[in-house]
Amino acid sequence: MREDWPPAKITLDPEKRVLFLTKDLDLIKQQLYHGLNLKMEDLAIDDLLDDINTDVMTPAWVCFDHDPVEIAKNAYAGLMHDGIRVFNENALKNGNFEVIVSGQRKGTGSSRETAPQCERWAGINIVIAASFAPIHQQNNINLGQLMGDHAMLERLQNGESIALEEFTTRYDEVTQIILEKGGLFAFAKALKSKEIVLPSIDTPSRPMTMAEKIIARNLVGQDERQCVKPGDPVIAEVQGGYSHEFTTAQVHTFLQNEYGEDYFLPNPSKFAVFEDHLLYAHHNPKFVQYMDKVQTLRDLQIEFQKHTSVRDYSAKDGVSPGICHQVAREEFIEVGDFIQATDSHTCMGGASNALTWGVGATEYANLVSSGFTFVKVPESIRFELKGRLAPGCTAKDVILYILAGHAREELTLNRSMEFGGDGLASLSIDERATLCNMATECSGRTGICEADDLLFEWMIQSQPHLDRDTQRSLSVQADEGAEYHGGVHIIDMSQIQPMVAHPGDPDKGIPSDPTNGANIADIGEVAINIAYGGSCTAGKADDVAYYALVCQAAEDAGLVVKEGVDFYIQYGSGIVKDLAVKQGWHNLFSRVGVKLIDPGCGACIGAGPGVSITPEQVTVSAINRNFQGRSGPGKLYLASPLTVAASAFMGTIVSWNDSLFN
Ligand code: SF4
Fold it and tell me: Which atom of ligand 1 has the smallest separation from the CA of 244?
């Protein structure tokens, strides 16, 4: 690996090259395979690829390797031209590049950390783009990758040397130190050895949002009662976290590399591992060839668990205890906690009035080994929910509405999405979890809901060892006068109609995206092949109750699932399945022709039953994201559990109403 990075003066190595990711894919091939060298001064930013998605950089199958060296071999494996890979195996590494250049918004999509890893371990030290997706930017920082703009590249290519500060000054003081040290691991070690001391923050007493309050009370190395404001770079204690078999192997390997084979965790009982994401991956024909790698990931997770004694949520007899986010909220997230885990839907825990968000393996490895994490306090946006859900609507329709409006306008970008109001109070805790879950699709930092008696009751029922008064005392409420940089938005839920997010028309440049909102009443007749109910978003008890409501009505009307449609339901956890069995829903589902899948997930990465197999297939799904290709090559409409179930019996996308089957 590179030594002594970064130097105080940044220059281009005359032995190395610069790769431009141009919209003209032939130009990329000429650079990769025919030695073409381009200069920034000969190109316009418009010539460069925008919105490079992390799934393009490292598709799911590439992530079955946990070693970044192996991941780097398949860098950009998802960039296709006429169905053929632009980047052959090892193309990026063999090209001897040290700089990679693209246009706007580098690193969009699911923000997987393997994406910047594939560049770093292929020899890239400097990443140039006009702008970066926030989580991708943070992952680059954690890996010590320098980011710059096109003007800086032009100067470098003209032989100038640029002071390191010029690459770092736009960041806060702590981020600057992380970059100067060469990444998060080196930073954490320097902090531990007291080689560096964190700057104290001087934010005066001020009204705070819910997210700010939870960060403030977890501050490390600051005065008690210190307030925070957006942008403050702080170190904060976490109350817990978890990883799953898709990510744990990297965490284990990184800790071994940094702290030796005999590393230990100071507080293992606060953390957990889950076997939930790849348990059914073999159902996807494309993934069958990678099952030996999947097994390695499972084995390494077991090794990590045994080595560290973190809480163990391994599968038993081939059945997962459930999706990490669902089980975590059922079993150990408490009101007011600060939780971080290695999956983008960690934000679902916000339904419990906790601050929860996803991090990459590097960040997670650091926080499990130290117990604290580096946080740049996010801005907030508040959604004041009013009124009651209209018939046929669920919380999923509310978040699809927010996606189509506020998120599409980037109002939610990297902000904590705070939900409150009497409309929120009318929603069940599971429904609130749907809102928080999809904060990540809104490109928000997280979602967090106000606490109330309904929440405290749910907490006691889920975790009987908890004390109601303690939970109440741990809860946070936004202060009067708290500042919302994203604004306060009043949403009358009664005005929201049943919605979908449609798959766009990627061939015409309209990408399949969760922000493609449309009222079902306006989409015309859309015939479906697959209906899927499940995932962390829609495998909760109340979601399954929605499926049961529709299935019971269908049975009463003498209907079974429409011929030619496969309707899958996957329970979010063992507890949800037990409930379905107890309520008689499980048998009901079987009687009306639903294909039932045991607890677990993998839905949004195509790792399980229910994914499309051909581009012609149309799916209506209660999951969270419809980025092209993630759940198979077909077209995917996102919708509510009620819409998914109703559509399964009608064969076309329809919203639910009591007389639908009459
Ligand atoms: S939908 Fe499933 S696979 Fe996707 S992030 Fe949520 S838990 Fe993971």
Answer: 8
Task: Name the residue of 276, 277, 359 to mutate for ligand 1: max ligand atoms within 8 A of Cβ.
Answer: 277
Pairing relationship of beta strands 530-533 and 566-570 according to DSSP bridges: parallel
Strands (E), 293-337: 311-313
Tell me if 602 CB under 6 Å of ligand 1: yes
CB 149 within 8 A of CB 112: no
pLDDT, tens digit (0-9, with 9 covering 90-100), for 272-317: 999 999 998 888 888 999 999 999 999 999 999 999 999 999 999 9
Cα 601 to ligand 1 centre (Å):
6
- pTM equals 0.93
Both tokens assigned to 376: 């740049």
Residue 130, burial from CB neighbour count under 10 angstroms (0-12, 13-18, 19+): middle
The conformation of residue 604, written as its DSSP 8-state character, comes to G
Mean pLDDT value across residues 49-53: 91
- How far is it, in rounded angstroms, from Cα 502 to Cα 513? 7
Q: What is the total residue count of the chain?
A: 662
Q: Could you tell me how many helices (H) and strands (E) the chain has, helices first?
A: 25, 26
User: Residue 177 corresponds to which amino acid?
Assistant: I
Res 1 pLDDT > 60: no
